[in-house]
Structure formats: structure tokens, C-alpha cells
Design goal:
Blueprint (H helix, E strand, L loop, with lengths): L7 H8 L11 E4 L5 E3 H9 L25 E3 L1 H10 L3 H15 L6 H9 L7 E3 L5 E3 L17 E8 L17 E5 L4 H12 L5 E7 L2 E2 L6 H8 L5 E10 L2
Parallel strand pairs: 6-10
Antiparallel strand pairs: 1-2, 1-3, 4-5, 6-7, 8-9, 8-10
């Protein structure tokens, strides 16, 4: 099967928001006309309009029957995956832009943003911090120092639940992990296992195993691969873990 190649400039109009004229970030589509915008752009646009004037900002289709704007827009996950595949650093740039906004306004950085920043270090190849801690833009002619392993560092929502079916009744778990985590999509199963062992304070002869239904997951399987294969249409990845004695 032959591969098809496209110039990014040729498909730019399909990836851009007509409100901010930038690339689509967290795309949301209007159900009535299927026009797509950045989530923040479209919500802010409707927030400043009375309900009697609800119209698509691109094609002007009438949206007045909808009393709640959240009922006429929906997340476009397929387009989001396309944008992230073609522009892997876009989400990282947006995280950096949000961070700079709070810094310029002398506002405290929200907890969720601090978590994202810990997951994605050196987000954009066009920005860097000099020795005086000043953020500068890198010249397009400069060589990027971002390694290929950091190209795809998009956070992923992970739900973890304990399966008590195989647990030794005599085992005492000191602390349970949080049910929902925001983690780096490039982490592998063994990273999550080590995290669980640390939180639950599990040591030999016990060991933690992660699985999906009845299938035990390989230690070297990336979370992003599991997400794409097993949870392609959801916003989060759900896994189970159990603590088994190796005696």
C-alpha cells in the first residue's frame, strides 16, 4: 500500500480556528453545522452573546432553539488526534502559553497547570530559559536541543482501581493511591507499577500486577499505545491492579 504525503500548508485551513486564526486547541464542533473551533474560543464567543443571538460565528446558522450552549457543541476527538499527530508540540506550547499568562499577570498558577508543567519539561523548542532565568525565543536557525523522546509528552488521564479478587486477606495496605491521575502518555506500565508499590508500601514477597479485564499488561507497554488501542473513544484510560504473593 502506497503512502500519501501532504504539505502542512495545504491542509492548514482544516486545522485552524476561524475565531483566533490559530491551530485548533481542544477542538469543539457545533452539531448543527459541523464547524469546529477551539473550545475556549467558542465558549467565550457564546458567553458574550444573548441567547436570542446564538449563531455559528462561521456560517451564521441559527442556534436559538438551544437554551444551553453546551448542548449544541461537542468535543471533536478525532480532529484533536489528527492535530496532535501532525503538530505534536501544539498542546505543549499551549501549556507554556498559559503558564506565561499567569506569570505576566502575577497570578498564582493553578494546581492542574502545575501538574501539566511537571509532566512536560522544556515544552517548546522555540522557547528556552537563559542563565539569568529570562524566557527567550529561540531563533529558527538555532538547533533544537529537545530530544526525540520528549516530542510526545501529552498528559493522559489514568483511572486506577484495585481488584481484591486475588489479594491475600492477611495483607495490610497502608495507603491507597488516588483513583484518578494525570500522567505522561509516554510512561510505561512498569512506571505505574513502581508508583503503586511506593504508595501502597508493597515489598517482597508481594508484587503488583496491572491488567485490563483478565489480560495482564506487559511491563514495557506505553500508556499511549494502550489508550489508542483499548480506549480510542474515551478521554481516560482505565486499568486495574492487584497485589499477588510470589511465594
Amino acid at each position: 500500500m502506497n503512502s500519501l504525503y501532504y504539505s502542512l500548508s495545504d491542509i492548514n485551513p482544516l486545522l485552524q480556528c476561524s475565531l483566533c486564526h490559530g491551530y485548533l486547541v481542544d477542538p469543539y464542533t457545533i452539531k448543527e453545522c459541523m464547524d469546529t473551533f477551539c473550545r475556549t474560543c467558542i465558549l467565550v464567543y457564546f458567553e458574550n452573546l444573548p441567547r436570542s443571538e446564538y449563531k455559528c460565528p462561521k456560517c451564521n446558522i441559527n442556534l436559538q432553539p438551544f437554551s444551553d450552549i453546551s448542548k449544541c457543541v461537542m468535543p471533536d476527538r478525532q480532529l484533536r488526534d489528527v492535530v496532535n499527530s501532525l503538530l505534536p508540540l501544539l498542546d505543549s506550547d499551549e501549556i507554556n502559553n498559559e503558564k506565561h499568562f499567569y506569570e505576566e499577570k502575577s497570578l498564582s498558577i493553578p494546581k492542574d497547570l502545575r501538574l501539566k508543567l511537571r509532566l512536560v519539561h522544556n515544552l517548546s523548542p522555540m522557547r528556552f530559559t537563559d542563565r539569568h532565568d529570562h524566557i527567550r525565543l529561540r531563533s529558527p536557525n538555532d538547533r533544537s536541543i529537545i530530544s526525540r523522546s520528549k516530542i510526545s509528552t501529552i498528559p493522559i488521564a489514568l483511572q486506577i482501581e484495585l481488584c481484591r479478587k486475588y489479594i491475600d486477606p492477611s495483607l495490610t495496605i497502608q495507603q491507597y493511591p488516588r483513583k484518578y491521575l494525570c500522567v505522561n502518555s509516554q510512561l510505561e506500565i512498569h512506571h505505574i507499577r513502581k508508583y503503586l508499590e511506593t504508595i501502597c508500601q508493597i515489598s517482597s514477597p508481594y508484587q503488583i500486577y496491572l491488567f485490563f479485564y483478565d489480560s495482564c499488561l506487559s511491563e514495557t507497554t506505553p500508556l499511549l499505545l494502550i489508550k489508542n488501542l483499548l480506549f480510542p473513544s474515551t478521554d481516560r484510560l482505565k486499568l486495574y491492579f492487584s497485589i499477588i504473593s510470589n511465594k
